[in-house]
Amino acid sequence: MNDDQLLRYSRHILLDELGVQGQQRLLEAHALIIGAGGLGSPVGLYLGSAGVGRITVVDHDRVDATNLQRQIAHRLDRIGHFKAQSLAESIAQINPDVQLRCITERADAALLEPLVAAADVVLDCTDNFATRQAINQACVRHRVPLVSGAAIGFDAQMSVFDTRQADSPCYACLFAPDAPPEEVRCATMGVFAPLVGIVGSMQAAEAIKLITGTGQPMAGRLLMLDARNLQPTTIGLSRDRQCPVCHSR
User: Fold this and answer.
1) Selection from 63, 67, 77, 43 nearest residue 200 by Cα
2) What's the angle, vertex CA 168, arms to CA 231 and CA 204, rounded to 5?
């Protein structure tokens, strides 16, 4: 680290659990963010400000006026721009040292394969069940930890799926690929604006913990949050030995 970096990241370096070594791991890390909307916005802003050295953002959607109620990385003058590019621009304004890559294509299995293989941590900030399953499958194949978040209405959930650990479940252990839930969208159900900020911030925190080896990541636990009373509930998760995705690992 140079003198400018020592100053910029001094509040991390002062933490005994992180220190210089932890910050150096962040600077050398590569985070893959899939989805640059409500969850992806705080995820990207916090990972960028924390000094994650390389960030790849994937999102094929464009900024719409209805996004601005909650997707804090975007601006009025970026309506019509790709969300991935808008998020990358906001990250760069906070920390120009971050190496940023934008991919404005839909995250299908073929696209995800090389991207996940090159990442140290993957953050699922999408709102599509099929895409979530494709992300999970790629993470299991390449043994890359996955930080998954979701929010709709006043309800949210988050977990870490780290199949580098023998007993850790994958996303498909919890949500079977052949039993998709009924899809609900913000356009029809609405979403409480600060909720995506809360969950996205927690996703960023879990990613930083995974990269630096700090604390106890949420692998094997599912956090559910009701923003009406801000009451969190955490339940334990078990690996499904018959899971069609991770059973052979």
Assistant:
1) 43
2) 50
- DSSP symbols for 215-242: S---BTEEEEEETTTTEEEEEE----TT
pLDDT category at 183 given cuts 50, 70, 90 is low
Instruction: Decide if 75 contacts 89 (C-beta within 8 A).
Output: no
Total count of domains within the chain: 1
Quote the domain boundaries for residue 229.
3-236
Q: What is the pTM of this model?
A: 0.95
Residue 191 CA to residue 127 CA, distance in Å, equals 12
Tell me which residues are annotated as active site. 186
Does residue 202 sit within a domain?
Answer: yes
As to burial, measured by CB atoms within 10 angstroms (0-12 exposed, 13-18 middle, 19+ buried), residue 44 is: buried
| C-alpha distance across the termini of the chain, in Å | 38
